[in-house]
Specification:
9 strands; about 15% helix; single chain; alpha+beta; Nucleoside Triphosphate Pyrophosphohydrolase; three-stranded antiparallel sheet
């Protein structure tokens, strides 16, 4: 199983930073930045958030500026296999759009406009509802993606 983070970063207009991904998984879709934990270094989800935010978005942050919002496991996600994702919320506001990186290009998008953008199925059906109604309590869910784009909530 792979371990990864997704980074939920907002601006003062309550728009979220999304990346049009150049690589799989989710190539060509608008997804939050993030990446795999470095398991050889026993990297924590918050350390991964700091590293990925810098590598992809040029954001200098510290681990205490990130909070865990949720944990999602995806069984047999296309082009990724079995994966556990730590959904990390940035506690600060970001106003400046990051420059394009080797993973993709960025846009701030308001949740009201998500339906007008190509958002991954799992994000659209499960992640965003939880992130947008996040009350401070960490949520956990498991998804079966073996018949993707049909996705089943396991728990």
């Amino acid at each position: 199983m792979k371990l990864a983070t997704l980074l939920y970063i907002k601006n003062s207009k309550n728009e979220y930073l999304l990346m049009e991904r150049l690589k799989e998984p989710n190539k060509g879709l608008m997804s939050p930045p993030g990446g795999k934990l470095d398991l050889t270094e026993a990297e924590s989800p918050s350390a991964c958030a700091v590293r990925e935010a810098f590598e992809e978005c040029q954001i200098n942050s510290s681990e205490d500026e990130w909070r865990l919002a949720g944990i999602v496991t995806e069984k047999e996600f296309p082009n990724a296999g079995n994966i556990m994702i730590f959904l990390m919320e940035y506690k600060k506001i970001l106003e400046e759009l990051p420059s394009e990186c080797n993973e993709g290009s960025f846009r701030f998008i308001h949740p009201d406009k998500f339906s007008e953008n190509k958002i991954p199925v799992t994000d659209k059906l499960f992640f965003w509802e939880k992130i947008l109604t996040y009350s401070g309590e960490v949520f956990i869910m498991s998804l079966d993606c073996s018949n993707y784009p049909e996705v089943k909530l396991i728990a």
